[in-house]
Every structure is written in structure tokens, then in C-alpha cells.
Specification:
739 residues; alpha+beta; Aldehyde Oxidoreductase, domain 4; 3 domains; 7-stranded mixed sheet; 6-stranded mixed sheet; TAT_signal; OxRdtase_Mopterin-bd_su_IorB; AldOxase/xan_DH_Mopterin-bd_sf
Length: 739
């Protein structure tokens, strides 16, 4: 039958409006499913009743259970954060069990994210580091106080070894398990300060290379539970047909054939699409294909054609009369550039990019009356609780979020759209859980892409080729305007994620950054090293142009501009030595780039060759030196650098989303090109920590330098041909060669 759709009507808050409009906001959400280090689900009750705080529970058998507050999406955070607690409480790591913290921002919120539970922005270690070490120190003081009471000695006479309290004068000792079984928590509980933290020369775990990640065994033997693995009794399956153009709504739905599919139980009109619920995945997929929907034609996104808009963005960047929002200003950069002896001007552009998580978007939801339970691979469940509550018409405290392992996140799984799908359909099948799994085509075409952007950079040089002024104009849509509108407005229309990385630590006397927002209706979102991934592309490539104009070596120019930055100089000098920077290479060349994003210093050198007939670039090797301040797990850091460099090479050479008249042209990995194993470069990483420095973020650090290092290597190989448009497709390379 054919019918005109009567959409559900709800009282809308500002946030829920984003849902009905199809511009689903970021779910700042996290929590739920207790899980041991192997990935197997465990009972909600943590074994043991000696609980010094919300983070640690000790059982009578000595097992120490530590909560992990961040979402594990392959970055190893389920090991790193609990390790900090274990270090300062002197727990035996072999007797530690790690479980996923429940969704409780008051107890487990990240200080780096204003106390909410959110995994992203390379902020987990930075945000939790001080807190979790203090939690460990406080736990140790509680245990010592209990031990002192049991041994009837002053607490000042006690010390801890691995999971044991020792009274050296009498030779007596108590295990943590004995204290948990027979001791009482002191009242009041002692508190800890920085003075109680272990000095670095006493660390047992921090800095060791031989502590394996706790999530790996279950991923090897197949017992790990990702969102797609969730199985519940009496479960139904769901799918959602979305409009080919974002922002359109179903106006007429012909669902006669879809309803006739065996196993289909519900066809659900939604404000942004049509939902199907059925007994099997196959039934919902078949019914989805048989739906005949007439969509509205009023979305602004219908005017969105990415190639045309990118040229428009470049024109806006060049037009200095079009003012933007001042993101940073030091001295009068405009006057310095205008009065310079020489001005280098360059435009740098980046296409839309897909997240390409191996696990597509999925979630499972159960609605029972005014309560909701969700199982999802989410990067965060405070916001998820809020969005789900608004869909159902309940309150966030009645929404429970169980966070599973994530098969990749990259910022995409901080969004709520896939979770809203599951909750919306579960509302229609009340009392039965509904699992929604997006197809890869849905995942590609309805992603929240990294923004399309153009940069215009002007660098003024004096007669000796020294930089006297730097102007940087960034033209792109805003992520915050959609996801955090109040923050966006409070910052005067500035989006510091979109412009992230543009503020550098090079010694430039006059520096200005402007953000010129474009608003063409398309949802864009957080991505792996969002802004810094393209701002450093522009900055590091322009620096090589400055070096060429000055007749200076690119490494030496950076060292000169980093003269007051010893940690930065260290990584640049280290990577140059690793790569034998000055060595002659037959048919190949090397390029260098540096980044201080996320509080971590990282320098890379890429060695490339170029096929002058096809325009194909081959990246043979990348050397990387990284200083994270405190290197909590050096081997793990090396792994994250390899991931970031591989991902960065892929996005620099291949990855792009094309939109024509609002419709995404790519649909799967046959049309969305990613790097292949045979194309991945050899990678060599040196971790060069600086004790005493603040701990830096690590998750996204490896990506920003690799693209500009590749471009700079191509320039040296070709006598100065500059690549200024991500990705470096062969046809673009040939165009640059022939310009």
C-alpha cells in the first residue's frame, strides 16, 4: 500500500531538534558493561567488599578490580589508565582485573572533558593521568591505615610492596587480600596529595615495555565482545532506510512489498527515514531494499557539490576582505606581512574524508516502559543517555548504557545517530531488544565526514629570508555549531577543533590565525586528528617553501625556529639522525615535518619515490621520533605511532569523499580507496620521553606529520613541485608536475 506519512510529534528541546532534523549531535556518552581484561562479560557486582573508593575493589583472595573509564577502541586505553592506579597503590599487576566503568560521570568523569565521560581528542591519558595516580595513592593510604589497625602499629612504620603491607621492624606483613578479608576501612578515609605519588625512580609499571595490553588475548581468540556481537534473548533486528540526500524526509512510503517479506514485524516511519524491524537481519535487509519512498526535496544539502564548494572555499581564503573570527593573534601579523621584503602565499586544501571504522555503526536497545537499556560501541554514555531519553520521553537517569569494545572509533562513534536508530525502533517493539547494524554503504554515505577545508597562508620574509610575519586563514564548516552550539556561540563563532594545530610553537614574531566559517548544511564531524591533520599539512609544507626561498636546509630551519623548545628540537634532531637525513638516495628523496599537537612532540621523515609517467607516489619508509612527556607504555606508544602513520599515509594518498548535488558518490571500499597492506611503508619509531614534563596525548599524534613529510619529499625529489591538495591523487600529481 501507499500512504502519506504522519510523522511522530514530540515536544522538542534544542538538542532533540537536532535529532528530528537529521543532524544528530554528538553523544558525550560512556559506561556500562562490566568486562574483564579478556573481554568476557562479568556480573555487574564486582567481587569483594573492601572498596576504598569508586575505582578499586579488593577481594579476600587478593584479586584487585580496577575500573577503566574510557572506551577501548584499539588504542589500548583499557590497559594504560588502570595501570596508573595499580602503580601508585602498589598492586601486583598479575592480580589485577580490569572492568569497564559504568556510566557515572560523577564518579568516572574525565577532568580533561569538564568531568564528563568521553573518549576522544587524545584526552584520555592527559585528562585522567593526575587523577588516577592520586586515586592509586589514596588507595594505598587506605590499605596502610587498615593494615596498621590490624597489626596494631603506627601507620608511619609500614610500607607497601606488590600487593602487600610490610612492617619491617617486626618482620610481619599482610597481603592486600588478608586486609580485604579481615580489615575495616578507616573512618574517615585518608586523602592523597601530589606528595604521596611515587617518584619516577620507584615506578614498577610506568615506562616498562613488557606489560601486554589486556584487551589483546580476547581479540586473538575471538571471545572479545564488540557491539555487533551482542546477543540478547528474544532479540529483533532493525534497519533504517535514509534519504540519499541528508536532511530530506520521507513524504510517501510504499511499503507493500516490504511488509510481505517473511519475518518483518514493523515498518516504522521516522522523521529522517524509514525503519524496519524483523526477526532476522536478512528479512530487514530485504525489506529495506523493497521500500519505495518519495523523499522531500527541500534540503539545503541538495546544493552541495564538493568540488565546486572547495574552489569557493579557496576563493574565500584568498579574499582578505572577507573577515573571519580571530582565533589567535600575536603582534600585528597583517602589517608584518604587508611590509615584508618577500611574501610567500600558498593555498592548501583537503577533501571530505570518511571514518572507515572496520566495525560499522551499530547499537542494541531495549525499551521497557520509561526505562531504556543500550548496548553500543560508543565513545562516550552521558550524552547517549540524554539522546535516548528524549527519543523515548523519559529522563537520562532511566537510561543505562553498556559500552562494548569498539571496532574502531576515530570520533565517529562519539555521534548518536546509530544509537537513536536502535532506540527509536526499540520504542516501537517495546519489551524486546532491537539490534541495528548499518550496512557498509549506509556507513559510507551517511558518515559525519572530516570537513572540506581550504587554507590560505601568507608568510612575510625579510631581506635575509627570515620570517617576520605569518597569516593563516582557515575556511571550513563548523563541527561545534552542530554538536556543541552553546560552546560555539560562547567562543564568538570560533571552532577550535576545526582550527586545531594552526597555533604552533615556532619562533615567529607576528602570527595571526583566522577562521572563516562556511555553512552549507552538511553535517561534518570529529575525525582522527581532525583540524591538526590538515593545518599541519599547510604549515609544514609552507615552512619547506620558506627554507627553499632562504636556501636553508629544512631540518636546520626547523631547529632554528624551535631554538627555545628543547623537547621539539630533540625529536627533530633524533628523527633526522634516524633517517640519515643528509645521505644521498638513488631515485628517492626524504621530507620532514613536525607537530606538537595534543601536548606531544612528534617529528617524522618520509622517504618516497615517484612514477613521473603515472603520478603514483610510493612511500617506502617513515621514521618517527616522539616525546610524550611521560611514556607510560613505550611499546604501546610505538604501536600507536605505526597506526597513525599508516592511517595518515592512506588519507594523504588515497582517501576522499565526493558529493554531487547532495549525494555521496562512494559506497564501499571498491570506490572509497584506502591504503593496501602492500602499499604500507616500513615504519621505525623512537620514543624519547622527557620525565618531568606533562603527559601528552597519544591516540592521534602519528597522523599529522606524515602527509606534509610526503609532500615535502616529493618537492625535493622534483626540484620544487608542491603538492597542496589532499589526497595526492595521481592526476593531481601529474597536474602539479605539468604546471
Amino acid at each position: 500500500m501507499t500512504k502519506t506519512v504522519q510523522l511522530h510529534s514530540y515536544a522538542l528541546s534544542r538538542r532533540s531538534f537536532l535529532i528530528t532534523a537529521g543532524s544528530l549531535g554528538v553523544a558525550v556518552a560512556f559506561g556500562g558493561l562490566l568486562r574483564d581484561a579478556s573481554g568476557a562479560a562479568v556480573a555487574p557486582a564486582v567481587k569483594g567488599n573492601y572498596r576504598p573508593n569508586a575505582w578499586v575493589t579488593i577481594a579476600g583472595d587478593g584479586m584487585v578490580t580496577i575500573m577503566s573509564p574510557a572506551s577501548e577502541m584499539g588504542q589500548g586505553i583499557m590497559t594504560t589508565l588502570p595501570l596508573l592506579i595499580a602503580e601508585d597503590m602498589d598492586a601486583d599487576w598479575d592480580s589485577v582485573r580490569i572492568v569497564q566503568a559504568p556510566s557515572d560521570a560523577e564518579s568516572y568523569g574525565n577532568p580533561g572533558f569538564y568531568g564528563i565521560q568521553l573518549t576522544g581528542g587524545s584526552e584520555s591519558t592527559r585528562g585522567y593521568y593526575d587523577l588516577l595516580r592520586l586515586i592509586g595513592a589514596q588507595t594505598r593510604k587506605v590499605i596502610l591505615a587498615s593494615g596498621a589497625d590490624m597489626l596494631n602499629v603506627p601507620v608511619s612504620e609500614l610500607a607497601t610492596e606488590t600487593s602487600r603491607v610490610v612492617h619491617a621492624q617486626s618482620g610481619r606483613s599482610l597481603s592486600f587480600g588478608e586486609i580485604a578479608a579481615n580489615g575495616a576501612l578507616p573512618d574517615p578515609l585518608p586523602q592523597a596529595t601530589e606528595a604521596d605519588l611515587k617518584p619516577s625512580d620507584q615506578w614498577r609499571y610506568i615506562g616498562r615495555r613488557d606489560i601486554p595490553r589486556v584487551d589483546v588475548p580476547s581479540k586473538v581468540d575471538g571471545t572479545a565482545i564488540y557491539g555487533m556481537d551482542v546477543q540478547l534473548p528474544d532479540m529483533l533486528y532493525g534497519a533504517v532506510l535514509r534519504a540519499p540526500v541528508q536532511g530530506e524526509r520521507p513524504e510517501v512510503i510504499d511499503d507493500a512489498e516490504a511488509r510481505a517479506v517473511s519475518g518483518v514485524t514493523h515498518i516504522v516511519p521516522l522523521s529522517y527515514g524509514v525503519g524496519i524491524i524483523g526477526e532476522t537481519v536478512e528479512a530487514t535487509t530485504r525489506a529495506k531494499d523493497l521500500l519505495n519512498v518519495t523523499w522531500s526535496t527541500s534540503s539545503r544539502v541538495r546544493a552541495y557539490t564538493s568540488d565546486r564548494l572547495l574552489e569557493q572555499y579557496r576563493s574565500v581564503g584568498r579574499d582578505l576582505s572577507q573577515a573571519g573570527v580571530e582565533a589567535f593573534a600575536e603582534s600585528d601579523a597583517e602589517a608584518a606581512v604587508t611590509g615584508a621584503a618577500t611574501v610567500i602565499e600558498a593555498d592548501y586544501m583537503s577533501d571530505l574524508v570518511y571514518h572507515a571504522t572496520m566495525e560499522p555503526m551499530n547499537a542494541t536497545a531495549l525499551v521497557t516502559g520509561d526505562t531504556v537499556e543500550i548496548w553500543a560501541p560508543t565513545q562516550g554514555p552521558t550524552g547517549t543517555q540524554g539522546f535516548a531519553a528524549e527519543v523515548v520521553g523519559t529522563t537520562p537517569d532511566k537510561v543505562k548504557v553498556n559500552t562494548t569494545l569498539l571496532g574502531g572509533g576515530f570520533g565517529r562513534k562519539a555521534e548518536a545517530d546509530f544509537i537513536v536508530d536502535a532506540v527509536s525502533l526499540a520504542r516501537e517493539a517495546e519489551g524486546r531488544p532491537v539490534k541495528v547494524i548499518w550496512s557498509r554503504e549506509d556507513d559510507v554515505r551517511h558518515d559525519k565526514f572530516r570537513p572540506l577545508e581550504a587554507q590560505h597562508i601568507q608568510v612575510g620574509l625579510d631581506d635575509d629570508g627570515n620570517i617576520v610575519g605569518w597569516r593563516h586563514r582557515i575556511v571550513a564548516d563548523s563541527i561545534f555549531a552542530r554538536t556543541m552550539p552553546d560552546l560555539f556561540e560562547s567562543q564568538g563563532g570560533h571552532d577550535d577543533v576545526v582550527t586545531e594545530g594552526a597555533h604552533f610553537n615556532y619562533a615567529v614574531p607576528a602570527h595571526r590565525i583566522d577562521y572563516i566559517r562556511q555553512n552549507n548544511g552538511l553535517d561534518i564531524g570529529f575525525w582522527f586528528a581532525v583540524g591538526v591533520g590538515y593545518t599541519r599539512f599547510g604549515i609544514e609544507c609552507v615552512l619547506d617553501e620558506v627554507a627553499a626561498a632562504k636556501g636553508a636546509d629544512p631540518v636546520q630551519l626547523r631547529l632554528e625556529l624551535l631554538r627555545d623548545q628543547p623537547r621539539a628540537r630533540k625529536v627533530v634532531e633524533t628523527v633526522a639522525k634516524m633517517a640519515e637525513w643528509d645521505r644521498e638516495r638513488d631515485g628517492r628523496a626524504v621530507g620532514v615535518a613536525y607537530s606538537d599537537a595534543f601536548g606531544t612532540h612528534c617529528a617524522q621523515v618520509a622517504e618516497v619515490s615517484l612514477n613521473l609517467q603515472t603520478g603514483m607516489i610510493r612511500v617506502h619508509k617513515v621514521w618517527c621520533a616522539v616525546d610524550p612527556g611521560v611514556a607510560i607504555q613505550p611499546l604501546h606508544i610505538e604501536g600507536m605511532m605505526i597506526v597513525g602513520i599508516t592511517n595518515g599515509t592512506s588519507h594523504a594518498l588515497f582517501e576522499q569523499i565526493n558529493i554531487i548535488d547532495g549525494e555521496v558518490q562512494e559506497g564501499n571500499f571498491d570506490t572509497y580507496r584506502v591504503i593496501r597492506m602492500s602499499e604500507a611503508p616500513d615504519i621505525e619509531v623512537a620514543v624519547v620521553p622527557t620525565l618531568g614534563s606533562p603527559v601528552g596525548g597519544m591516540g592521534q599524534v602519528g597522523l599529522p606529520p606524515v602527509g606534509p613529510a610526503i609532500a615535502n619529499a616529493v618537492a625535493r625529489l622534483t626540484g620544487g613541485v608542491r603538492l597542496r591538495h589532499y589526497p595526492f591523487l595521481p592526476e593531481r600529481v601529474l597536474e602539479a608536475l605539468n604546471a
